[in-house]
């Protein structure tokens, strides 16, 4: 069998304990973290200047609407600061030799022209750079209009009217000891502000000086007698001051129609003193340009506040704007730029193509303003060789070039944008700070159309596959757009609504409730009204009518594709790709590439969403490390934390407060600066700041420095959710040598800016009070100790299907002992009922080989006909009782658990299923195709969504008025049988079985009745093949157009309206096959025992829908397979490997530390009333030998229920004692004395 199991390194050289991960998106970051945390050195190679990938560009994520940057930022920081992850950004792998276990990779790094070791990420260089557009750097003089003194010059006319005096917030002065008495400044000043007589020293008439800088520009470089007399606070450098003043003037001039020269002098001053070129000069007629001196850098154009200047005006050459690629070209950037505000590493790159200094030797302003001296124009690219044992290939994707679909006008009509561009428009850190505006004119659009399948499911551009994510991200964008502006009317034009993931259908239904309109139609063309910029869409609706409809803006839902450079890299690595550029893999080895030792994860393995990407990333990490288990820990660095400073008695409180802008997530509503200023007035606060992104890596480093500088001993952060970010800030505090529990957090995003978006004053005042309460709590904080204990390196796997067996085998390969528990008499699970995969691989053969691997592995102990009946302990030290077939209990000790109890095919009471021989499920039909080929039917009808995705109604019911029984929709079934969700696999299974039947009997007639064909990803290719082979697909609506099905002994009769021909058709098949969906097994008792939650459908709930799809909320527990949600066999195998990767992080450690937030009993106050024993949902409290309640801190979950229930107040919880709560309440009462009166208790 071609599997990861067969890819054991076959090398005589010692195994390397390092792994290379290629790609720094969410997939690469997850792989890197899982590997590094499990004891391997990681080299993370990313070809852009910073990690983050496409997820960093997104605004929100579905179906939770979490801020994408908020949830990915902690991972960015963790990767950036991890001791065992070496970031190789702005780099590429250019060579690979060796074999699995002992590769040598050649990595070439481009020159940043910035020394990473010196750069602080302050952004001064980017602020000072005045260049935002470029034409070219001429090697020869440019032809001009007239010559003076042998030099080519041009006069750009139009002096315009002078502005009022004090144009700038500075004036100039002349240093008498440096003045050359040349009079250049006198002749240059157009405002009569220079006093000079021939042969004398010049002086400035202050009350006439406008600050235009013409004198400054005219003064010979070698004398520099003219200097700024008054400078604004921002004037760290002249370049920065000019750029800032330019921005202020642009704002001031925005309402004027005047576009003539206002003689401000910024262009000339920039050209000479900043760029050090000197091609522009202020003269009476306007601006004189020296064409043979001009370097075509565009700096003058970028600072002109009235957009009077243009490069082509100066040089007859059309300029090329420097587009911000992170913002998808919606705004401009400088040649020196940081990729995005939260970038890791937050280090700029200088673009050697557009940088003036690198091309001409002039300018150099960025180097002059860099305090640490990090700018180094002499830096060169480098090349190094890295020895690694295996490679994870996760290069990500690019979006389809929408210009290839010219009928939609992208690139021609400014108000037609792609979906990723719209994400940047929605984003708080985007070019419009989250305001929905049309790029063409800045207007707020009312009607917005989304056109689906642009670059997906499209033969014309060789993108036949489905991109899997477009339907959901379009729904999300429409949903969020209405949250930004309730006046927006979104319309989504789609073919099939492929909301096949966990909770996706429910999300689409919520979108419909929010008046998001869904139109099933293919838009044929988009036209623009050149006068208004509005867009006309033409399409045929579901009734066959041709429709013309106008919209203000159009969003093209572009698909994903593999970049050409990725294909070249894969070829160099020896990885086989399919025609679309996706890695070729097998159904039972989904993460193994064609070259042993190289594993794939993410979109390179086929189109997928973020949770599937994260699962594959962890799975690929597991596969890459399994063969290197013996080298675990041989190349890692162990973190050495500074000694924790013990607070002295009576020590002065020194609290630092950081109020986060969160881009504009918070700052667009809350006056962050005002909140920080208020915090400075609170008792004990010695420092208060308001960083742009407090969670970014540079902010974490800055916080550590500020802790040291100001000798802080408490920390308060006002930002977003503590559930996602508190561990990050506590870790930073501990790295600074402070006990991490001297920390509190105010959630001013969720509780202020998000809930009061239309009332900034209220949101700001509420933020002040929350910060006040957090500071009050910090004053009462105490250091807490954490319990350290040894880890039991054994794993318990519950469930013996494909997920459970895969997890057991992979964990054993990692070197861990495994207990595998299965309640049935044999291993195999639901897959024993399946025939073959969509690519023709035999399930039975695969199962047999997998069972043999389990049974023949000495590290795996199998318990058949057994069940888990009791469970106790905590992460790293669990104890579980297993009931064996003999009735005996077997207690096993283990450090982690993987739940893989699976799901089963639903069998609803519907259309005679179970009673009529000619009605069966897809799994029954699959078995029949394998076993009874001679009796295959000639006409088969398959009914999709049978008992799934239906309204919850009884199978029959009585009308209130008439009492007449009424039938439900054809896909309904009884309430007990109802599955409200999509089961994900049904459409693909139906197409697979239909194709199989066609192989056996090419003359067979097959009709598939469907609502939406959800053959996502590469499954779309099978769907298209089925259509080509004559398999008939008839769409229906369960509410407006349900099929009428009559099942009787004499046969089956179906009537349905076929929308493709616009009339009803009658079908009389030999066999009715129901796609009934998948339902979870009964796990209520198990979930209660393990104390983990399930959703309303019975599936286990993950710790986080996007970024922790394998972890259960209880630490040390993981899940794999269909216990999580419906999925196919390949996806199940990948998740099983991912679960092992997550468990390996725990099991590979010698010891762990538990939280210090636990309950403790004061025995002197305990009344032995047993209230805590009864109240604790985890069963932790017990009565000890001294006849008082006792709580094992290792078992305590810190929920605080016992604290609240104890009538004698004998139990306290760290961080949540009475003194903490009362401090918060008092601080609030002091802010609102009329609101609350705090009752003093006996203990004060």
UniProtKB/TrEMBL annotation:
One of its GO terms (molecular function) is 4 iron, 4 sulfur cluster binding. Transmembrane segments: none annotated. Its EC number is 1.8.98.1. Its cofactor is FAD. This is Heterodisulfide reductase subunit A. Keywords: 4Fe-4S, FAD, Flavoprotein, Iron, Iron-sulfur, Metal-binding, Oxidoreductase. Belongs to the HdrA family. InterPro entries: 4Fe4S_Fe-S-bd, 4Fe4S_Fe_S_CS, FAD/NAD-bd_sf, HdrA-like. Residues 110-139, 170-199, 200-231, 252-280, 285-314, 346-380, 1157-1186, 1187-1216 form the 4Fe-4S ferredoxin-type domain. The keyword DNA repair does not apply. The keyword Iron-sulfur applies. It comes from the Bacteria. It holds the Pfam family Fer4_10.
